Amino acid sequence: MPVCVRIPSVSPASTALGAAAALLAAWPATGSSPDEAQRIYQIHCASCHSGDRLGGMGPALLPENLRRVRRPEAREVIAHGRAATQMPGFSEQLSDDEIMLLVEYIYQPLEVMPVWARDEVLDSRVVHYGPGSLSDEPRFDADPLNLFIVVELADHHASLLDGDRLEVLTRFPTRFALHGGPKYSPDGRYVYFASRGGWISKFDVYNMKTVAEIRAGINTRNLAISGDGRYLLVGNYLPHSVVLLDADDLMPLEIIEARDAAGTSSRVSAVYTAAPRESFIVALKDIAEVWEISYAAADFPLRRIVLDDYLDDFFFDPGYHHLIGAARNANNAQVVNLDEGLKVAEIDLTGLPHLGSGISWEYQGRPVVATPNLREAEVSVIDLQDWTIIERIDTLGPGFFMRSHGDSPYAWVDVFFGPDSDAVHVIDKKTLKIVRTLRPEPGKTAAHIEYDRHGRYALLSIWDDDGALVIYDADTLEEVKRIPMKKPSGKYNVYNKTRLDPGTSH
Ligand code: HEC
C-alpha cells in the first residue's frame, strides 16, 4: 500500500504580537509577577507537566486542557494532590498565595502557538505490540459485533462489555481525559481513542491490549476513521491543525495547518467521516469554511467550502449530500449542500441544537432528523426534504444526547442541564410524543443512551464518580441490570457504529 507521504513543513508559531503584554494585563494585581509563578512552576511542577506546560507524565496545564476543571478544584488539587494518582499535594511546601499564583499561571494561554509538527508527532509514537505479534482470534467467547466500549471518565479507564450477557469482559486504563467518541475499524477488531491532551491510542479488542499510541496534538477535539479503515484524521485546537495518520501503524502521513486563504488561523472544532463520499469533513471554529479532504486519492486533496458564517457541530443526511451545522452568530442552523458547496437553507433553531447527536428515522413517509438543544428544553424534529421544523417536543430541560435504533419504536433523550438532569425521556417515533419519563437514580445526572446491536437493550449512564451503567429492556422500558462504574460517559456499540445505524451518531 504505497502511500504518498507529504508532510508540509509547519511554520513555527504565529506569534501574536503583544501577547506578552496581554498576559501581563490579564494578571491579577497581587503584587507578584508571572515570573514568580513561572519560577515556582519550574521548581515544583515542570518535572511532571513539562517546562512548557504541554504535559509529560502529568497532563498538559493549559486553559484549553483545563476546561473540565474549575479554578477552585485546580487549587484543591495543587494543595492536596489527587488520591490514587501520582499528583502530589503541595500544601506543606507552598503558601496559599503561591498556590493561587500557580492556579492563575496555568490558566493563562500560551504566549505563542506551541509547535507540534512532524518531528514532535513522530517522536511521541510508541508501539507496544508490533504487527503480527498478537492473535487474530478473539480471546473471549462473545459476539464481537455486539460489544460495547464504555468510557469511564472519573479514573480514566474504559470497560469492554458483552452486549448479550451484559457483563464486563475487561477494564483497562486509557490516556488522561478522553474526548470525542472512540472509533472502530470496519471489522470491529480495533478501537481508536483520542484524549484531550492529543494522544491517539489504538486498542486491539480481540486481544484486549493497547497496541500503539501517538500524540497528534496538544489539545485535541476528536478523531475520525475513513470508511475503509485505512486512515485516521485528528482535529486539534492546539496547534491549529488536522493530522492524518495511517490507521495501521499510526504513522503521520500529513499535517495540515488550519488556515483560510488569507492566512487566518483557526481551531478545528471536529472532524467527521463521510464514508459514501470517501472523504473527511472538517468543522472549523474561527474561519467561515467547511473542509472536505478526500481519502480516495493518494494526495488527499483538500476542498474548501466558503460560507457566510462559522459552522459547528454537524449532522449529515443519510446520503451525506447535506450537512446541517449550528451557526455561531445567526440564531439558526444552516444546511450546506456538499455536492455543490453551497448553503441551501436556514433552519430556525434558536436553542443551540446539538446536531452531532442528532438521529434520523422515517416519520409519515418522510426522513426526519431529531436533535436535542443545549440551551432550550426542546427536541426539534426537522424534515430532511424541505428543512422545515415539523415538531418541537417540550422536555424538562436542555438535552445533550439522543439515541434510537433502526428496530426500536422509541427514541431516548437525556435532560442534561438544569434541576431535572436525573430524568430521561422516551419518545414514540410514530407520534412524536413523550411516552415515559424515567429517573434511574434521583438526584444524579442520567445521560447518553445507547442501544445494543439488536435493539433489545438501551444502556444509559449515571454520570457520577460513583455512577453506574443502567440497562433497560428497550421494549418494556423495565430495568434489567445495573453495573457500578466510575463516571461512565459514552458507550459505543461495535455493530451500530460500524454499520452506521440511523439511530446513533456517527
Ligand atoms: C510527580 C509528578 C507531578 C508533579 C511534581 C506535579 N504533578 Fe500535577 N499532576 C500529575 C498527574 C499524574 C496528574 C493527573 C492526576 C489524575 O489522574 O487525575 C496531575 C494533575 C494535575 C492537575 C489536574 C489537571 C486536570 O486536568 O485534572 C493540576 C491542576 C496539576 N496537576 C497541577 C500541578 C502543579 C501546579 C504542580 C506543581 C506545583 C504539579 N501539578 C506537580 C503529576 C504531577
Automatic annotation (TrEMBL):
<dbReference type="InterPro" id="IPR009056">
    <property type="entry name" value="Cyt_c-like_dom"/>
</dbReference>
<dbReference type="Pfam" id="PF13442">
    <property type="entry name" value="Cytochrome_CBB3"/>
</dbReference>
<keyword id="KW-0732">Signal</keyword>
<dbReference type="InterPro" id="IPR003143">
    <property type="entry name" value="Cyt_cd1_C_sf"/>
</dbReference>
<dbReference type="GO" id="GO:0046872">
    <property type="term" value="F:metal ion binding"/>
</dbReference>
<dbReference type="GO" id="GO:0020037">
    <property type="term" value="F:heme binding"/>
</dbReference>
<keyword id="KW-0408">Iron</keyword>
<protein>
    <submittedName>
        <fullName>Cytochrome c-like protein</fullName>
    </submittedName>
</protein>
<keyword id="KW-0349">Heme</keyword>
<dbReference type="InterPro" id="IPR011048">
    <property type="entry name" value="Haem_d1_sf"/>
</dbReference>
<dbReference type="GO" id="GO:0009055">
    <property type="term" value="F:electron transfer activity"/>
</dbReference>
<feature type="signal peptide">
    <location>
        <begin position="1"/>
        <end position="31"/>
    </location>
</feature>
<dbReference type="Pfam" id="PF02239">
    <property type="entry name" value="Cytochrom_D1"/>
</dbReference>
<keyword id="KW-0479">Metal-binding</keyword>
<dbReference type="InterPro" id="IPR036909">
    <property type="entry name" value="Cyt_c-like_dom_sf"/>
</dbReference>
<dbReference type="InterPro" id="IPR051200">
    <property type="entry name" value="Host-pathogen_enzymatic-act"/>
</dbReference>
<feature type="domain" description="Cytochrome c">
    <location>
        <begin position="32"/>
        <end position="110"/>
    </location>
</feature>
